UniProtKB/TrEMBL annotation, chain A:
<feature type="domain" description="MAGE">
    <location>
        <begin position="52"/>
        <end position="251"/>
    </location>
</feature>
<feature type="compositionally biased region" description="Polar residues">
    <location>
        <begin position="8"/>
        <end position="23"/>
    </location>
</feature>
<dbReference type="Pfam" id="PF01454">
    <property type="entry name" value="MAGE"/>
</dbReference>
<dbReference type="GO" id="GO:0005634">
    <property type="term" value="C:nucleus"/>
</dbReference>
<protein>
    <recommendedName>
        <fullName>MAGE domain-containing protein</fullName>
    </recommendedName>
</protein>
<dbReference type="InterPro" id="IPR037445">
    <property type="entry name" value="MAGE"/>
</dbReference>
<dbReference type="InterPro" id="IPR041898">
    <property type="entry name" value="MAGE_WH1"/>
</dbReference>
<dbReference type="InterPro" id="IPR002190">
    <property type="entry name" value="MHD_dom"/>
</dbReference>
<feature type="region of interest" description="Disordered">
    <location>
        <begin position="1"/>
        <end position="29"/>
    </location>
</feature>
Automatic annotation (TrEMBL), chain B:
<dbReference type="GO" id="GO:0061630">
    <property type="term" value="F:ubiquitin protein ligase activity"/>
</dbReference>
<dbReference type="GO" id="GO:0005634">
    <property type="term" value="C:nucleus"/>
</dbReference>
<keyword id="KW-0808">Transferase</keyword>
<keyword id="KW-0779">Telomere</keyword>
<dbReference type="GO" id="GO:0008270">
    <property type="term" value="F:zinc ion binding"/>
</dbReference>
<comment type="function">
    <text>RING-type zinc finger-containing E3 ubiquitin ligase that assembles with melanoma antigen protein (MAGE) to catalyze the direct transfer of ubiquitin from E2 ubiquitin-conjugating enzyme to a specific substrate. Involved in maintenance of genome integrity, DNA damage response and DNA repair.</text>
</comment>
<keyword id="KW-0862">Zinc</keyword>
<keyword id="KW-0158">Chromosome</keyword>
<comment type="similarity">
    <text>Belongs to the NSE1 family.</text>
</comment>
Amino acid sequence: MSQRKKAVSASQNKTQRRSQLLLNESDEDATFSQITSSQVQRARENFTSDQIDRKVAEVVQFILIKDQKKIPIRRADIGKHVIKDYKHIYTDIINRVCRTFEQVFGLKLVETDPKNHIYILINKLEPIHGEPVSMRPENPKKGLLFVILSVIFMKGGVIKENLVWNTLKKLRVDPGEKHDEFGDVKKVVTDEFVRQKYLEYVKIPHTEPVEYEFRWGLRAEKEVSKLKILEFVGELFEQDPQSWTQQFREASTAGTSSQRTS
Amino acid sequence: MSRPMADSHRRFLQTMMSNGIISASQAEALHKHCCEAHGAHYVADRLDDFINVINAHLQPLFMYIRKGMSEENGLEYYALVNMTETDITRMATDYADNELELFRKTMDLIVDSESGSASSTDILNCADSLRTKKLKKKETEQVLNKFVQDKWLNEKDGEYTLSVRCVLEMEQYMRTIYQDLIKVCHVCHNIALQSQMCENPTCGIKMHLPCVAKYFRARSDPHCPSCNDFWPHEIPEMQRFQSQSSQNLPSSSKENTAPAPSRRSRRS
């Protein structure tokens, strides 16, 4: 409990430098860690199970809507807009919400930022082929993403942005031009994929002019199988995936959470 | 206690979520695909049982997968609907306030009309007198396009109708708001907008165009099923509604079930 308070006060110092809006959110969020166990007990008794069921449903809806736009969900937002008076039993509610996502939707609620309490929903079901094509809206972009993830993985996990652009140019996807399928390619890669947490696009310190590097994002780490990437690369070069011993070792030990059977 | 969900059900549900609405034939194909992908026991004509399992688990979340018929083409569709909406809040996160107001006004026009449709001219006139913030002609056209893209409205020859998705999602809202202004179809008992009406003033029952076609099939002398008066309207051909792919029929308006292109959040 005290560690959380330390983290909260540390983040509160940082927020003094940020905008007023963010400061309020952080305050709002701080109250979560000041809840005592007797408050929780009283709260559990205060609300009927029907009321709590309803709250769980509202939180699920809220998260699904935010996730549809791939906006990471803040605990403070959930508190302010949905939980409100039920704050003291937040943990009970969020546990049920997590179970619901797993059991009903095959999704996992993951805290990407334990300090600022931000969640994303990731898919526990592995992506499969052969799905009726008309129902896979994001297909072309996923292909593009896959290529980029492959390059990053094969090159050891982090690459300079130039390498990504050069690779795409070879595939006739030029970030400088408007692409028929993807539109503003640079925006899709550096904004959309980053916002969705498939990629990280980070400034390399002390570079002039500023250079950026790409890494796998948290969602990619959780959703994409490194073994599948290696197989894909193997097919591309007509080589046995095991011939890349370092990557093969990494891919074998990685084992994503999405490989669980029902 | 309801049957437990398996990955086959979850995959089906995830696909429903990313599409919003699918046709019955797409649903059949998806059912097969989901079962085969997860090694689940697949029985061809048990789609509704399969969906019932999912619905039992969606019920506490106030969601369910609903089956309904399209007024445009008479085909069946499955839509994932939200039961908590007593308003058009379903759309609230994607549209500005004045766009929502325009949608409500368009719906008013459609419900009020005999044909179950609203002309673009009438909608443009509404846009000019919105309480929230007026929309210019170009903006109105863009918003209407968006409504069609997002599968809330269908458009044909400048006439706008409510899509099957809209009716399935907003039926509760519509019944609350419009009350007796909304009639149901005498044959299938669902909301009837694009329909024919009995001319007898004491009768006035309505029937969907596809329902009329089915009911009066091969009858040379149609009479109202309720008051027995002669049914004065042209009976549409069954063939018009029976085709698997509505794309082949130039006469009937198409239901848009293509996946929605990803949109940038307007609030970002």
